[in-house]
Design brief:
Strands 7-6-5-4-3-2-1-8 form an 8-stranded parallel β-sheet. Helix 3 links the parallel strand 3 and strand 4. The protein is α/β, with parallel strands linked by helices and about 250 residues long. Helix 1 packs parallel to helix 2 and helix 7 runs parallel beside helix 8.
Length: about 250
């Protein structure tokens, strides 16, 4: 059974104090729980505080982006090695908001992912279709195109997040059947790119208005191995409830 992975993407919310308090709660509740992996990805300014609190626990801290070069004249950017130096283990790459607002492409996202893995980070690689593509019946074609870059990555340091763009921050959520269809397709596609054994072991997360009241059904699908949680991850109680929905959760006193 694949170990579930539940990641909190805080986007541009929260600072060092909020992140430190949040991670303290995660460490207390899930810091020695081997049944799932929990990753917290606050804004860059909050990373040192979050990483310090998480140090020595099973809770991992991740960045929301990194550059495709190891260093250079790239004002405002952050190199993967800088994240590693802070004690981070993960980084999100190719999120739909990066694609929509900041010109991210399949090629640049792939470059960021390769740079992250070179530096020793594991990557949550995001892909997914817009509402226009979904309504045109082109979801699987989009996923086939976007996933082609995964052939150049190390499956051992990779998770894939399927995030239908139309469900991010909108309150709309893919049905469990829609999520499973996309995840099953991606697993088969990744099998052709990286090998069937790698595809069987690789975790594919769902992202798109995941909440405590829909997480159990989504995470209960055969090919859904966790969640990339946006707005609902800002509250420790709500995020904890989502974590508990992942299959195989080991109950403990909190």
């Amino acid at each position: 059974m694949r170990r579930p992975l539940v990641a909190a993407n805080w986007k541009m919310h929260g600072g060092p104090d909020a992140a430190a308090k949040f991670v303290e709660v995660m460490v207390a509740r899930f810091g020695d729980d081997p049944s799932r992996e929990v990753v917290v990805c606050p804004p860059f300014t909050a990373l040192p505080a979050a990483a310090m609190i998480a140090s020595g626990s099973a809770i991992a801290v991740g960045g929301q982006n990194c550059h495709w070069e190891d260093k250079g004249a790239f004002t405002g950017e952050v190199a993967a090695s800088m994240l590693v130096e802070l004690g981070l283990r993960w980084v999100i790459v190719g999120h739909s908001e990066r694609r929509q607002y900041f010109g991210e492409t399949d090629a640049t996202a792939a470059g960021r992912a390769r740079a992250a893995q070179r530096a020793g980070l594991s990557v949550i690689y995001c892909l997914g279709e817009t509402l226009e593509k979904r309504e045109a019946g082109e979801t699987l074609a989009v996923l086939e195109r976007q996933s082609a870059v995964l052939a150049g990555l190390d499956a051992g340091g990779l998770a894939v997040a399927y995030e239908p763009v139309w469900a991010i921050g909108t309150g709309r959520t893919a049905t469990a059947a829609q999520a499973e269809e996309a995840h099953a397709f991606l697993r088969g596609r990744i099998g052709g790119l990286l090998g069937t054994d790698a595809a069987a072991a690789l975790r594919i997360l769902y992202g798109g208005s995941v909440k405590a009241d829909n997480a159990a059904e989504l995470l209960g699908q055969e090919d859904v191995d966790g969640a990339l949680v946006g707005g609902a991850s800002l509250d420790a109680e709500t995020f904890s409830a989502i974590i508990r929905c992942a299959p195989g959760f080991t109950a403990r006193r909190e």
